[in-house]
Amino acid sequence: MNAVSGLARLEAEIVACRRCPRLVAWREQVAREKRASFADEEYWGRPVPGFGDPAARVLVLGLAPAAHGGNRTGRVFTGDRSGDWLFAAMHRAGLATQPTSVHRDDGLELRGAWVAAAVRCAPPANKPTPEERDTCLPWTVAELDHLADLRVVVCLGAFAWDAALRLRAALGHPRPRPRPSFGHEAVFDDGAWLALLGCFHPSQQNTFTGRLTEPMLDSVFRRARELAGVG
């Protein structure tokens, strides 16, 4: 219960964050102007907190909310094509109660997993600056303070892999030398912190071109369960 209440307090703080002027301006502009297909919807237009199981052993770390996905729905990877792929795979792996995620109150629950983004606001062109990345890092540090059972981070893309290494350093763990390289199904686990598991991001650029397939994504989550000690 302490983790649940702590995460709830942290969520309220994250949602109120206005530390990055460029991101604040962009997320609010998108929420005002909207995409034509969502013209009748009220956009979230704020930072998007992580969500999932407080007893999670698997952390799924993405880049940032999509302008018309998480920035619209208020839940990361919810209401966009990347989320369609991600949650379908997590459902097949037994980490999500349903294969789709349409809005915050659609009944989706995660089992043994937590999903978050390295940057909590939708960035222009989906490209946060290094300063914005570093400004957002303390929110993930604080989130992990309440997720004591984590064992592995599934890093969706090179940006998330880099963010996980920075997160590790921010928590006081030694910087690995040489620096581990990102790759699909790459694993870094030196026993000093959580294991890192690389995965191509389920973006349309990767899924439409076949760079990332459903069997490849399923393989990542099987490996994640192994590394997390989930039977």
Task: Briefly say what this structure is.
This protein has 231 residues and is of the alpha/beta class. It is built from 8 helices and 6 strands, in the order ααββααβαβαββαα.
Secondary-structure map:
Layout: H1 2-15, H2 21-33, E1 51-52, E2 58-62, H3 70-73, H4 81-92, E3 113-117, H5 130-145, E4 152-156, H6 158-170, E5 187-188, E6 195-199, H7 204-209, H8 214-228
Helix pairs in contact: 4-8, 5-6
Task: Kindly describe this structure.
- The protein is α/β, with parallel strands linked by helices.
- It has one domain (2-228): Uracil-DNA Glycosylase, subunit E, CATH 3.40.470.
- 40% of the residues lie in helices and 10% in strands.
- It is built from eight helices and six strands, in the order H-H-E-E-H-H-E-H-E-H-E-E-H-H.
- Strands 1-3-2-4-6-5 form a six-stranded mixed β-sheet.
- Strand 5 (187-188) and strand 6 form a beta hairpin.
- It is globular and about 45 Å long.
- The two termini are 25 Å apart.
- The mean pLDDT is 96.
Structural class given helices, strands, pairing? Answer: alpha/beta
Q: How helix-rich are the residues, as a percent range?
A: 40-55%
Question: Low-confidence spans: pLDDT under 50, at least 5 residues?
Answer: none
CATH architectural designation = 3-Layer(aba) Sandwich
CATH class: Alpha Beta
Number of strands: 6
Shape: globular
Number of helices: 8
What number is the mean pLDDT? Answer: 96
Elements, N to C (H/E): HHEEHHEHEHEEHH
